[in-house]
Amino acid sequence: MTNEAERQSLAQKTGLLPEEILRVEEALGRPPNETELALFSVLWSEHCCYKNSKRELRKLPTQGPGVLIQAGEENAGALDIGDGWAVVFKIESHNHPSAVEPFQGAATGVGGILRDIYTMGARPICFLDSLRLGEIRGGSSAARNNRRLLRGIVGGIAHYGNCVGIPTVGGELAFDSSYDGNPLVNVFCAGVVRHDHLQKGAAAGVGNPVFVAGSLTGRDGLKGAAFASRLLGADAREDRPAVQVGDPFMGKILMEACLELFAQKGVVIGVQDMGAAGIGCSTSETAARGEAGMEIDLDQVPLRERGMDAADILLSESQERMLLILQKGREAEAETVFAKWGVPLRQIGHVSEGGLLRYRKNGKVAVDLPARLLTEDAPVYEREAKIATASSQALPAKPPLTLAECRSPWTTLAGLPSLASKEWVWRQYDWMVGIGTVMGPGRADAAVLRVSLEGRTKYLAATVDGNSRYAALDPRSGGRAA
């Protein structure tokens, strides 16, 4: 076991707490090696395991008569919409990457949420976005930077959504100086699927082959999840290597290949997209959900760069990649589908029993860990809550304004970026692609989509809303209002 001084040193290098390193050592009965420690540093980050927020998130209502898959059970939630069909949806943030590299940060946020939806077997039908940025008016350096971020973020969302042919049908955009240099970028995606075609992200069946599909693996996005879990500093631009780079054209054909394969019943046993922590996260999550283990040969992973070690391969966040667990003996069916779409597909291992993850590199075991220790057994904390600043105090009551007093404030309010028309934003989005948009952005409080489902037509309304000021003054009331 390491001593306290050694754990303090490792904590500085990895971002883990010294007591978390001790927890790993006690669970394993030995100190983790360098590659194993790198895995824990990412999979035990807030971005991956929600160790600081999970207790609060569990308070949200997640059950109901129409709920098919609850929040946190799979890659996205699912609700029954009748006639054997379900709507699958999720919203996810990509804040830190968008602050450092706004175009790619926002674009890969769209790509990531897209994969979460079709990983469930659903065909995506729309995107929405919820954006918060700092003040954009004036000539200050902060305002100029916020305008740069706004152009990049909107451009990235438009680029990815337009290229994959899925409409961005609505959203919200607000500005406040509290977001200077630290934007909030949330992207929502919804899709539809038959109940009996829902896919699961669990490994099962000892001996079933494990495949990686999609883009080649490179060093882009290394430890991006750990980066997304820490505070942004003045040197944030130095974190550009932690920002992933998206390829919407590969994203499109990967989606089509996966959906075609899912339609062939019994071929796919489990599926997981590769987002945060890449192969390391996707293999550990699917193994833990299925109470299984995996034997993975990292030398079989198709690489884009030379000289990548085991940690690089496991933690790479190269985009447009999927992990597929197939039924043994039906590999040829998958290979035929992916060859048709021109998407790389390679077997990298197989499902094993015992719940252990073994990753080999150059014929040697690089990692030997229980899957649950990386995922379900990650620490969960109950943090002390307090009012952050004096500005969060309740505002004093004021008497109602007269009509005369309203005239000047009205013209002022009409000129605020948060209240002004957002047409400049949504005109960059192809919100009519797919010919299912009945009510698009800027026309009502919600978008309306027409979905044709095997001879039946259904209409779905979608919106995303929140009031940042309410949430700042009273988080509980702000959350309730949203």
Automatic annotation (TrEMBL):
Residues 7-51 form the Phosphoribosylformylglycinamidine synthase linker domain. Keywords: ATP-binding, Cytoplasm, Ligase, Magnesium, Metal-binding, Nucleotide-binding, Purine biosynthesis. Residues 206-355 form the PurM-like C-terminal domain. It comes from the Bacteria. One of its GO terms (biological process) is 'de novo' IMP biosynthetic process. It is an enzyme of class 6 (ligase). SUPFAM superfamilies: PurM C-terminal domain-like (SSF56042), PurM N-terminal domain-like (SSF55326). One of its GO terms (molecular function) is metal ion binding. The keyword Ligase applies. HAMAP family: PurL_2. This is Phosphoribosylformylglycinamidine synthase subunit PurL.
